[in-house]
Recover the amino acids of this structure.
């Protein structure tokens, strides 16, 4: 059987969802037998490739760069999975949506009397005022809520998609 | 009249009850699950959350099961695709209206809104979030009111007025601008009427009311046995 091409993408999130994916432990071997990992923060590949079967995306969309990467992933992938609460609801990054990016940066980096008061900006994509979930920009094929989704949940979802299980009943929810 | 037994059908199941009982009561007695949020046994029913809407044969309208009395020969349906769709929309609108961030909430894992979303299969929020700027009132010595998590079910208002008899809580403004207020809109800590009993905290379905010092997922609520309290008091008065 031809191996499926799997990608994972890390936008504005804490990498906890990727950690949860790694927490599938020895079942990673079962997954590895079924897929080629063609793009991921866990692999040293610079450009999102042309033809991808499944992409799991962690994190919310917080900058123009995030949005561009999301659109590229959507264009080149058959199935797009919103992995975890930041990708699904905005979650932690979206908590700044109430006051905007500037107010948040000033509060964190300037107003707490740090040793070197400065807002990090050099070579970083500027933050937008609102951090938003993936489905505000592209069609999402599967939502996996959870902060992070349990390793079991991620394995069930990926294994189900790869083996063509029609009814994916994922036992997960916002927050857990 | 009140002890006449009426018979009706709920989801194809023949059931019976008294004319003073609601569709919700009879459904629960017969283990038929109708989702609710503002309803709490022992408090007056206000029918405001609209999650318990059901279809009644012969009526073009939907009816809130918690405030609709049963009638002889009623044919009630509680689980159609249309009803489930409305229920999913209601839950999504509640999430979109204020800042519910389950992952960092004191009630994570013990929240009725979070559980409703899970049960109804709400896996994302289709509506754009409002992200309103809302206050957290931590002026009370023992409790916190976080408006970000409030769904305006008014359980706190009712338990305080009907069970504790203090009527500290009320609602100001209308629609999306509605807010729970203590007394005549004072900080909770300055309230002259609050007895500090904590019943409001424990009937609150979300993390809007919590005990001070509780961190993420630590706020376990102990629902006071309201029907028991009410029954005991009724006996005393007689």
């Amino acid at each position: 059987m031809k191996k499926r091409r799997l990608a994972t993408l890390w936008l504005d999130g804490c990498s906890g969802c990727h950690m949860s994916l790694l927490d599938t432990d020895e079942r990673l071997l079962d997954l590895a037998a079924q897929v080629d990992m063609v793009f991921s923060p866990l692999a040293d590949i610079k450009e999102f490739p042309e033809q991808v079967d499944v992409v799991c995306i962690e994190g919310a969309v917080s900058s123009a760069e995030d949005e561009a990467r999301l659109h590229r992933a959507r264009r080149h992938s058959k199935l797009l999975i919103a992995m975890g609460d930041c990708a699904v609801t905005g979650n932690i990054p979206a908590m700044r949506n109430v006051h905007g990016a500037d107010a948040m940066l000033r509060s964190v980096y300037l107003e707490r009397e740090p040793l070197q008061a400065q807002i990090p900006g050099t070579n970083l994509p500027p933050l937008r005022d609102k951090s938003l979930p993936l489905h505000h920009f592209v069609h999402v094929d599967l939502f996996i809520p959870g902060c992070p989704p349990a390793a079991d949940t991620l394995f069930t979802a990926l294994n189900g998609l790869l083996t063509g299980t029609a009814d994916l009943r994922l036992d997960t929810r916002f927050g857990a | 009249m009140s002890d006449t037994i009426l018979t009706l059908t709920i989801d194809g199941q023949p059931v019976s009850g008294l004319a003073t009982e609601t569709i919700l009561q009879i459904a629960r007695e017969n283990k038929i699950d109708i989702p609710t949020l503002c309803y709490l046994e022992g408090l007056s029913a206000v029918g405001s959350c609209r999650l318990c809407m059901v279809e009644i044969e012969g009526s073009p309208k939907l009816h809130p099961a918690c405030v609709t009395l049963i009638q002889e020969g009623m044919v009630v349906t509680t689980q159609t695709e249309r009803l489930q769709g409305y229920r999913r929309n209601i839950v999504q609108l509640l999430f979109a209206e204020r800042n519910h961030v389950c992952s960092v909430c004191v009630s994570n894992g013990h929240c009725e809104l979070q559980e409703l979303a899970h049960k109804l299969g709400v896996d994302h929020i289709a509506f754009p979030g409002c992200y309103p700027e809302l206050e957290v009132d931590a002026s009370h010595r023992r409790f916190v009111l976080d408006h970000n998590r409030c769904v305006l079910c008014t359980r706190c208002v009712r338990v305080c007025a009907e069970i504790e008899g203090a009527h500290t809580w009320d609602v100001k403004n209308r629609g999306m601008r509605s807010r729970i207020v203590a007394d005549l809109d004072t900080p909770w800590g300055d309230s002259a009427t609050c007895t500090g009993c904590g019943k409001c905290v424990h009937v609150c379905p979300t993390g809007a009311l919590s005990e001070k010092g509780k961190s993420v997922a630590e706020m376990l609520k102990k629902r006071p046995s309201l029907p028991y309290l009410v029954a005991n008091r009724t006996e005393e008065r007689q």
Observations:
- Chain A has six helices and five strands.
- Chain A has a mean pLDDT of 94.
- Residues 4-94+130-163 of chain A form a domain with the Rossmann fold fold (CATH 3.40.50.700).
